[in-house]
Design goal:
By secondary structure, the chain is mostly helical. It has a 5-stranded mixed sheet, with helices on one face. The radius of gyration is 41 Å and the shape is rod-shaped.
Length: about 625
Amino acid sequence: MAAEKASGRGQAWFCTTGLPSDIVVEVDDMTFHLHKFPLMSKSRKLHELITEQETNPTRNQSNFSAEEEEGDEIEQEQYCHISLPDFPGGSETLETAAKFCYGVKIELSASNVAPLRCAGEFLEMTEEYSEDNLISRTERHLSQSVLRSVKDSLKTLKSCERLMPLAETLGIPQRCIEAVAERALSADPSLFGWPVNDGRGSSNVLWNGIETGVRRKGTSRITSSDSWLEDLALLSLPLFKRLILAMRARDLSPDVLESCLMYYAKKYIPGISRSNRKPPSSSVVSENEQRELMETIITNLPSEKSSRSSTATRFLFGLLRTANILNASEASRAALERKIGSQLEQATLDDLLIPSYSYLNETLYDVDCVERILGYFLDGLEVEIESEVGDGSVRPPTMMLVGKLIDGYLSEIASDANLKPDKFYELAIALPDNARLFDDGLYRAVDVYLKAHPWMAEEEREKTCGVMNCQKLTLEACTHAAQNERLPLRAVVQVLFFEQLQLRHAIAGSILAAESAPADSGRPSNVELEQEGESAVAAADSSTWRAAVRENQVLRLDMDSMRSRVHELERECSTMKKAIEKIDQLGASGGWRGSLTKRFGCKFKTQVCDSHEPTTTTTVVETRKTRHHHHHLHHQ
């Protein structure tokens, strides 16, 4: 049959063949004026409906008056009216199916093949009824074209959402899901780069949907993986869940699976990216739907550590913040914290600053959450160390990175006036001793905390300072700590002791270097004598040796001065001890001790002259002044 022209007039569709239409088919709000013979030749169901109406013509008499207003081209005795309220795909699909019945060439695509397959099933357009019918045509296109492409399979899967449950009965969604999972299994994971954009589309797409605001050279072409990820993000949540489960069942690459979850989450869950100020183009509007989507993403995240950059970790922290806002289940949040803990070394300080959304927490940031994440990291690292080397004394690079990260986090939260000393102490000692090469970062955090909490008792101040190891402070940190009036006396004495110890080691090292310098200086001079001459080398070695000797003399003077100050401090402590014992022998009441406490500004103990116990504030202040005075005289 030759192709026939069709035209639409408002809500009516006419087949302009020059012959009057003898049947009207209603689908949704559209009326199709067609002819019986082409429809009956292809559709068994339409043949039965038309035959039934012809045998019982009274059923359509009520519709004659409405059709008379359209014109006189339809004869009442030939008029047939059929209504298809549940037609799959709606009026657009029926229009294409009608064209197929008239012999018009139709173009099948990934978007219309599923609706036409369902329409063929609904109208019973089988191969047994008519050769090369609509069902066989659509089935061939599905198997030979659509299911061989991930992008086309996703488009067809998306079109099935409005064809349920007929499409499910025909197995079209499951076939598309299996095709996508199989094709993704053979995809190159390197095509799924980080980060993934939020799915809104941009002219600045660089790789897999990356939008940075700057266009690189040669990156105007969108990759195939990016294009089908965009189609993946258009799926409804039930179909997306089925697709992800199918991918996991086939042991899909964790990077590919994580890319799919990340792309979908960024499109529909607001607030994941701090840099993204625009709201996502999301159809998920209710809080319950967002919570369900959130838990679906978290549940299906691969347990393996991501091999990508820190962008994946930043995404996980954004997911955690949103999970806290949406009050996701405890199991989901615990799984997400465990996933973050497995790659904590990739995090930044900004990632750890998770606001506290619960009214039960008085602190600005959620310290408990960071403490749990750190615990998961240490548990995983312990298992990794035992399985690889079997020795817990080694210092892995990841441990050093996390130690530096936690020190920065402690310095950031230390200024919070509501942060309890016990909470600060527990987080500071959570890392093992080998996590820090130097304790300068920890000392900085302690100093900030003491400054923000001046009302702390002496016992709490000493406990807080006990988190740092004075032996691991650099010389600059020791110099600052010795002059820090916020530190308790015990910590200052420890710092002074280890500072003196460092000076001793420095002096010993300089002496050894000076003694070995004359012996070593002759060796290169004999070699250089044949090439450049001995005089230049001897003069250079002589000047180096004199400089080392001068430095040793200065260090010896400093050590002697410090030794004399220590002896003076011990004598003063001994005098104070004798005075206290004399008061105790005279049977002095508590009032005497209270008056001495007020006078000296500290509580006296019988071990006050012990070199490991703190002295009075007055004595230490005077000692510091004497020290600076002597040091100034030596330099003069």
